[in-house]
Design brief:
The chain has a single domain (4-216), classed as Rossmann fold. Helix 2 packs parallel to helix 5 (81-93). The protein starts with 9 loop residues before the first helix and ends in a 22-residue tail after the last strand. The chain is built from nine helices and seven strands; from the N terminus they run H-H-H-E-H-E-H-E-H-E-H-E-H-H-E-E. A seven-stranded mixed beta sheet has the order 3-2-1-4-5-7-6, sandwiched between helices. The chain is of the alpha/beta class and 234 residues long. It has helices at residues 10-13, 16-29, 33-45, 61-68, 81-93, 107-110, 132-142, 156-171, 183-192, and strands at residues 51-55, 73-78, 100-104, 117-123, 143-152, 196-202, 206-212. Strand 4 (117-123), helix 7 and strand 5 (143-152) form a beta-alpha-beta unit.
Amino acid sequence: MPPDCCRTDYDAIFDDRMARREASTYRRHGPRADTRRLVGAITGAGVEGATVLDIGGGVGVVGQELLAAGAASLTDVDASRAYLATAQAEITARGWADRATFRFGDFVALAPTLDPADVVTLDRVVCCYPDWEALIDASTAHARRMLGLVYPVDRWWMRAGAVIGNVALRLFRQSFRFHVHPVARIDARIGAAGFVRRMQHRGLVWQVVLYERPNDVQRDTASLELDPLLPVPR
């Protein structure tokens, strides 16, 4: 763990106001397009009766969608108190309090205290964490069946945007930084942990990727949407 002076204060940027706005947007319009694509890929692979670990769960969108689709239980971990409280309130309001557990803190630090889950999700989380290797290693270690991610494409415009945005954050004395981590190395590290890609969709800003352990991968890949720049697992 880094010393207190070097830790990211997620509460400072992911605050009550932002949490309320995101929850309201979700109630009115449903999930964002990339989140909807991730949830669709997971439910398409089968989530009935599954346990879910949602890392950096935000206001609980992925958790709510997967519980509604038949997941048996949810563990929501978030380093923002406002987001975690909002997720808990939203899920409780839908009558699922008995199926959900909420943990505040840094997932990498909490990982030894958390049980593995059938499905592990990281929706716009990799970009918020400086040590992507530690985050990926802890995530893959906890995923029994599927690992789903939404994170930035590794392109020059994203790297340039991250530099500009981080300068602004520094000027406003925020400890949070936006990260564009190396896509090929992330994919290789997840593959080395025993996963293969089932689905990938890459947009201008965000990419959605679903990995499965080999014994759960469907043999028919004709309908899968894979990035043509990366090899299709055989």
